[in-house]
Design a protein that fits this description.
With 346 residues, this protein is an alpha/beta fold. The protein has helices at residues 7-29, 71-83, 99-107, 127-141, 159-164, 169-178, 193-205, 229-232, 234-240, 263-271, 285-296, 303-317, 324-327, 333-336; strands spanning 46-48, 55-57, 59-61, 88-89, 117-122, 146-151, 182-188, 212-216, 243-247, 277-280. Helix 2 packs across helix 3 and helix 3 crosses helix 4.
Length: 346
């Protein structure tokens, strides 16, 4: 069935949410937390990506937020992040019609590619669609391989079976690893912990083990009952030594609309969890400097500090109002564009 929700409408909806969140992020963070100057030279904390043994930066740079600024500013953001020790770069085949990958590819020219751990994601649920999307992503990123390739948006109960079915996407990812187009394989999703657990179980049934898993980890997710990734999925990944990719530490900035927590509190909480990396979206140098200050000067929260920040967010967290990626479809690209599951046509 053809979706009545156009790609342009999707991008406008997501863009509006991100823009609103960005304004909120700046106003609530306040002058004291928004940093116009880059941080002093410090060492970026590094963490092990599960059993891969690869070390990646505590802070990861999200790819989706490279779409709203100008190309020049997006390239500057990527390079300045790398210059300050960020090695983990996130992206996806469908972000802003591929523009986010193209901009990242330009930023990685001149030797920058060799300094980073590059990840992208694919929407295709069939082997053919996934393979075609990967080739497009590699061309945009101007590289012959990514370090981590992930199945994007595991947000449907049917996704695990489709991915692991005969002719399913996992075949393309395994073939890509064998061909040297990727080193590691993972998956990501933001909808429900149950879907992540089902994906892990489906992999076990097929004798497959993921290298990394990406999911929302933040102060509100922690308190959202049975829909908490921190409570239900994080312990499984830690136990199985699978790389933990925490995302949405600020919920694309929407968590800050609650007026319950600040950006720095959100970042510190997320980074204090047993994650390999905390991926955060950056759409300006001011936001980049704020996030770098949090990462480069990182001190894990004490248990008392964690309890205090969770207490501040409790009332806002329990309805899911500020976790719109869980409770609405506005961030579900493949819900609005289901053809991306079957085709490499944007």
């Amino acid at each position: 069935m053809k979706s009545s929700f156009s790609r342009r409408a999707l991008l406008e909806a997501v863009g509006a949410a991100v823009a609103t969140a960005a304004c909120t992020r700046k106003s609530i963070a306040g002058v004291a937390q928004m940093q116009s100057d880059p941080p002093e030279v410090q060492t970026m904390p590094m963490r092990r990506l599960g059993r891969t043994g690869v070390e990646v930066s505590l802070m990861g740079l999200g790819g989706a937020h490279l779409g709203p600024p100008s190309e020049k500013d997006a390239v500057r953001i990527v390079r300045e992040a790398i210059d300050h020790g960020v090695t983990f770069l996130d992206n996806c085949w469908d972000y802003h019609g591929g523009e986010c990958e193209r901009r990242m590819g330009k930023a990685l020219r001149g030797g920058y590619r060799q300094k980073v751990f590059l990840m992208t994601k694919l929407d295709g649920r069939t082997a053919d669609a996934a393979a075609q999307q990967l080739d497009q992503s590699l061309r945009r990123l101007e590289t012959d391989h990514v370090d981590l390739l992930q199945i994007h948006e595991v947000i449907r109960d049917s996704d695990p079976a489709r991915v692991f079915a005969e002719g399913g996407a996992i075949e393309a990812l395994i073939a890509a690893r064998e061909a040297g187009k990727t080193r590691f394989i993972g998956f990501t999703g933001h909808k429900s912990p149950s879907m992540h657990l089902a994906m892990l179980e489906m992999a076990r049934r097929h004798g497959f083990r993921f290298d990394a898993v990406q999911m929302p980890l933040n102060v509100m997710d922690a308190q959202y009952g049975e829909e908490s990734f921190e409570r239900r999925v994080l312990p499984v990944l830690v136990r199985e030594d699978i790389g933990v990719l925490g995302m949405k530490p600020l919920g694309s900035g929407i968590l800050l609309q609650s007026h319950a927590v600040t950006a720095v509190e959100c970042l510190r909480y997320a980074m204090s969890l047993p994650v390999s990396v905390t991926i955060t979206g950056v759409d300006s140098t001011d936001v980049l400097h704020q996030d770098l200050h949090a990462a480069l000067g990182f001190e894990p929260m004490t248990e008392d500090e964690k309890r205090a920040v969770l207490a501040k967010a409790t009332a806002a967290a329990q309805t899911g109002k500020y976790e719109k990626y869980k409770t609405t479809t506005v961030f579900d690209g493949t819900t609005h564009q289901p053809r991306w599951l079957e085709s490499a046509q944007e």
